[in-house]
Amino acid sequence: MIISLKKILNNNNSIYYLGYIFYGISIILISIMIMMVSYSNIELNQKVLAIDELVDNESSKTINYNLSGNSEIQIDKYDFTTDDLNKIFDKQKYYISSVRDKKLVPNISINKFPKDFNLISSTKDKKSLFIRSLLPLIISENNKIIEANKRIKKIDNNTFEYIARDDALWLKKQFKNYKVKSHHIDDLIAKVDIIPVSIALAQAAIESGWGTSRFVSEGNALFGQWSWFKGSGIIPKKRDSDETYEIKSFENLRQSVAAYMKNLNSHNNYSEFRAVRNNYRINNSKINSIKLIKYLSNYAENTEYSKILEKIIKKNDLQEFDQVEIYILPYKLVNLAFNQ
After folding, report:
1. What stretches of 57-81 show up as alpha helix (H) in DSSP?
2. Angle at 227 between CA 174 and CA 146, to 5 degrees
3. How far apart are the C-alpha atoms of 198 and 187, rounded to whole Å?
4. What is the distance between the alpha carbons of residues 134 and 146, in angstroms, rounded to a whole number?
5. pLDDT value at position 158?
């Protein structure tokens, strides 16, 4: 090889030939690089078109939804309007009709109702925006409860003679949070369970006036929970002078939903509610929210409270939302977060 190179270098004409060869190779390499870049651009454009088609084609039946993702659209600006919220829902093709049909909702987290929510003149539009705003929050909190329930059962079914320290500490915390004095796993499992979506929506509608009450606008209080800690909430205008309770306020709507579920799952007033719900589980039956609401009569002073709940659920077909799930689109379409 070395001898061949020496012969080439000794021959002046061969040097020119060698230059032509290097020049030709360079041209070929540059051409290949240009082709690769062009192909990448074509592939990128195809992906962009696929995303656009995914957003624009509402009736498409080929969308693959991911039901296990954690991606969440946060809306935490406190001065956004109903128009802003409707635009976000429109962008996600999030309509009541599609939810009833597909049983799927986008993972949109709303911290507070729009500042002009009370100004919506159409009852139908107000109810629609109210339901769509709360559905992802209610389902998301139920999902957290389901995961906790699974973890408790996994610990209980552990075949080892010991429990990992992390599991033991976590389990101890659950016994305390859910007020399970017996420290029996079965008693805890009966409490760590979902609140049917239809019931949560109906109670939120009653207690908040479909999102229009002062307690919601001032303190995100969806469910009218009482608190006897001074300064923990909002003082009702019609409260008797000798009363000290307040309507508990929250930093955001999600906290209100979580506290409401914790209340139904731990307070003594709803022990019968939990027992009946647990019977559905033991018998592997689907929970019937209409039959379950009669055990929530202690939630309000109104003796007709359960009947009012039933009327709202039936009139607004809220049971259709009991099987709804949160989906995550396969592409991150757009960042819809509002920053304060």
Report:
1. none
2. 30
3. 25
4. 18
5. 81
CB 106 within 8 A of CB 54: no
CB atoms closer than 10 angstroms to residue 143: 14
Q: What angle do CA 298, 228, 308 make, to 5 degrees?
A: 25
pLDDT for 163: 86
- pLDDT averaged per 10 residues in sequence order, the chain, 340 residues: 49 54 66 58 40 38 41 61 92 93 92 93 96 97 97 87 89 96 95 98 96 93 84 77 81 96 96 97 96 94 94 97 85 37
Q: Determine the Cα angle at 262 with ends 314 and 241, to 5°.
A: 90
Opening angle at CA 34, ends 33 and 37, nearest 5: 85
Cα–Cα distance between 214 and 209 in angstroms, integer?
Answer: 9
Strands 73-75 and 108-110: parallel
Runs of H (alpha helix) within the chain: 2-10, 12-56, 82-91, 96-102, 123-156, 165-177, 185-191, 197-208, 214-219, 253-266, 271-282, 289-292, 305-315
Q: Tell me how far apart the terminal alpha carbons of the chain are, to the nearest angstrom.
A: 71
Do 145 and 194 touch, CB atoms closer than 8 A?
yes
Nearest partner of 190 among 174, 168, 201, judged by Cα: 174
Written as one letter, the residue type at 286 is K
Contact 230, 248 (CB under 8 A): no
Identify the pLDDT of residue 236. 78
- In angstroms, rounded to a whole number, what is the distance separating the alpha carbons of residues 34 and 55? 32
The pLDDT value recorded for residue 337 is 39
Phi, psi of 327 (to 5 degrees): -115, 155
pTM above 0.85, yes or no: no
What is the distance between the alpha carbons of residues 281 and 200, in angstroms, rounded to a whole number? 19
Both structure tokens of 311: 């009327």
Phi, psi of 228 (to 5 degrees): -105, 15
Asked whether the beta carbons of 106 and 66 are under 8 A apart, the reply is no
Q: What tokens appear for 11 in the block?
A: 């021959």
